[in-house]
Amino acid sequence: MLQKTFELTIVGLLILGLCGCQNANIEQYKEAPKVRGQVSREEILSQNTIPVFTYKIVKTYPHNVTSYTEGLLMHDGYLFEGTGLYGQSKLLKMDLKTGKVMQQHELDPRYFGEGITILQDHIFQLTYKSNVGFIYDKDSFNLKKTFHYPTQGWGMTTNGDELIMSDGSATLIFLDPKTLQKKRYITVSDDKSEVGFLNELEYVNGEIFANVWKKNLIARISPKTGKVTGWIDLTGINPDPEKLKYPYALNGIAYDKKSGRLLITGKCWPELYEILLVPTKNKDDKL
Q1: What is the 3-state secondary structure (H, E, C) of the chain?
Q2: In terms of residue numbers, what domain contains 110?
Q3: Hey, which of 24, 51, 68, 230 would disulfide with 84, CB 3.0 to 4.6 Å?
């Protein structure tokens, strides 16, 4: 009990020290379902069967330090972002180059916003512990309807036919976009065991990219088998590791299929990065 109290105190001090996120309540921060320990960078670098990639920063864009990033995507040339924290959760449409907010919708303070995705004319947004999601008109941001799910809500993306969501475990759930009912699920694993703590998601050229919560790692996942097909090691990309510590972790993956750009950021980070993947071992690959 004393150890838990100490840990919460430390995190609370970190929260108070970061501009723009100082009003957060410590109870809102994620504790993933206790399914297994987290995968480590040392583990993925020591194995020889799954390709590992590093990165090259091509461009840097501004990112609002008050945005506790939960969902990120590019659509029709604009950056869309879903942010978290009780009383600060929003849905945003922005100009990528300037960071200017073109449109926004604020969630009711009782909701902690989570992952977002766009399918056809609608934006879908999850919430963390409320078991409720929102469906908005893509152009007006008007709320059209709500839907419910039994798990926590973490990340969300789409393959164009189904919605795909994470709940903090090693499971990715596929939903029918019309009924919002579960169609199927996959359990994500590498060559050692299940890979849990899956957070923000992005569908990229037939693969699911997933942030691993509290790690500088992105898993590339087969949507058919759940097998990890590659690891992206983003060690060193944090612009201020002394200040941007837990819970201000790497989180946010956006891919623009028109331009082929991959964009990443973190919670309350001041910048967003366009990167190229650089193979480090096993085989050459590309997006």
Answers
A1: CHHHHHHHHHHHHHHHCCCCCCCCCHHHCCCCCCCCCCCCHHHHHHCCCCCEEEEEEEEEEECCCCCCEEEEEEECCEEEEEECCCCCCEEEEECCCCCCEEEEEECCCCCCEEEEEEECCEEEEEECCCCEEEEEECCCCCEEEEEECCCCCCCEEECCCCEEEECCCCEEEEECCCCCCEEEEEECECCCCECCCEEEEEEECCEEEEEECCCCEEEEECCCCCEEEEEEECCCCCCCCCCCCCCCCEEEEEEECCCCEEEEEECCCCEEEEEEEEEEECCCCCC
A2: 35-281
A3: 68
CA angle, residues 74, 77, 83, in degrees to nearest 5: 40
CATH of the domain at 276: 2.120.10.30
pLDDT at 281: 59
The residue written with tokens 């990167």 in the block is 275
What is the percent of the chain with per-residue pLDDT over 90, rounded to a whole number?
Answer: 72
User: How many beta carbons lie within 10 A of that of residue 194, not counting itself?
Assistant: 16
- Say how many domains are in the chain: 1
Residue 78 inside a domain? The answer is: yes
In a domain, 19, yes or no: no
| Tokens 């206790």 -> residue | 34
Q: Return phi, psi of residue 9, to 5°.
A: -65, -45
Residue 165 lies in a domain: yes
**Assigned token pair, 131:** 């078991």
Question: Which tens digits make up the pLDDT trace of 192-223?
Answer: 889 999 999 999 999 999 999 999 999 999 99
Judge whether 26 lies within some domain.
Answer: no
What b/e sequence results for 41-65 when a residue is b if at least 16 CB atoms lie within 10 Å of its CB, and e otherwise? Answer: beebeeeeebbbbbbeeeeebebbb
Q: Are 174 and 46 in contact (CB under 8 A)?
A: no
Chain length of the chain: 287
Indicate the residue type of 58.
V
